[in-house]
Amino acid sequence: MPANALTTKFPGNGPDLASGGRTHWPQRGPRLARVASETLGATALEALRASILSGRFAGGERLVEATLAQEMGISRGPLREAMALLEKDGLILNVPRRGKSVVEFTTKGVDEQYGLRKVLETYAVELLIKRATPSKDRALERALRQVRDAADGDEPLRMALADLAFHDTLYKLTDDDLLTRVWRESVAGKLRMLVNITTRTLYPMAVEVSNHQVIMDAILQRDVATAREHVAQHVDDAWLRVRDSVASAQSQARALGPGAKPPSGRAGTPSR
């Protein structure tokens, strides 16, 4: 199936999930495109957000204003505004006397993300069932088909992206704009940053398909209790696996000493 089959996007939270399966970009040359002068602030915001979410910048990597501004061909003013907004979104960390850096995942951060996701998603599936229509059923089934196709192709990265697309579709179909916005702005973007880890911690492909199918079946049967139970279990399983992987990476980094990176060369990301 062509890569552009995955069409679900997170507006304002980075690139299309069908971005060709690339999570690490070549380090040669500029990592940020030059931006048009008439929309400097907004364009700088989206360019920097997309670069962080796509993995062009490693977790914990320092962001030097002068260097970034030169790469983008803009002054520091619009860039500084963009970085301030991304700091509010939780993608950039600003430490006094140390400067700004890309957020680095910790076990505490994983607990916060997945704890919030569990609350949101169990509510989302209940709301979806209450507002279900045949057309919404078909839309979610199409999203599930992407998960199944990724499994058939034995493509772990594509599976991780299809998984995110399935859940994004679930939120969107609730017709609750606030809920969807909270998911996309507070949770989905950071989960996208974790895709390198979630790809490594996937269950066997057939199990991943089954985990989504039981959620789909409960929705089709309009069984709120069962749907909430399956969603909660799905989130808990991912939570435990990602947390263990992040904890392992943190332990590895501590063993290497202050300022060192794991052998993978990506701070906070365990090697395969």
Brief overview:
This protein has 272 residues and is mostly helical.
Can you tag this structure with a few keywords?
mainly alpha, Four Helix Bundle (Hemerythrin (Met), subunit A), 10 helices, 2 strands, disordered N terminus
Number of helices: 10
Identify the strand order in the major beta sheet: 1-2
CATH class of the largest domain: Mainly Alpha
N-to-C order of helices and strands = HHHEEHHHHHHH
Number of domains: 2
Helix amount: 55-70%
Strand content: under 5%
- At the fourth level of CATH, the homologous superfamily of the largest domain is GntR ligand-binding domain-like
Identify the CATH architecture of the largest domain: Up-down Bundle
Tell me what the structure shows.
By secondary structure, this protein is mostly helical. It folds into two domains: 37-102, Arc Repressor Mutant, subunit A; 106-256, Four Helix Bundle (Hemerythrin (Met), subunit A) (Up-down Bundle), CATH 1.20.120.530. Helices cover 61% and strands 3% of the residues. The protein contains ten helices and two strands, in the order αααββααααααα. The protein has a two-stranded antiparallel sheet with strand order 1-2. Helix 4 runs antiparallel to helix 10 (224-256), helix 5 runs antiparallel to helix 6 (156-172) and helix 6 runs antiparallel to helix 7. The radius of gyration is 19 Å and the shape is globular. The protein starts with 39 loop residues before the first helix and ends in a 16-residue tail after the last helix. Mean pLDDT is 81; it is low at 3-26 and 262-272.
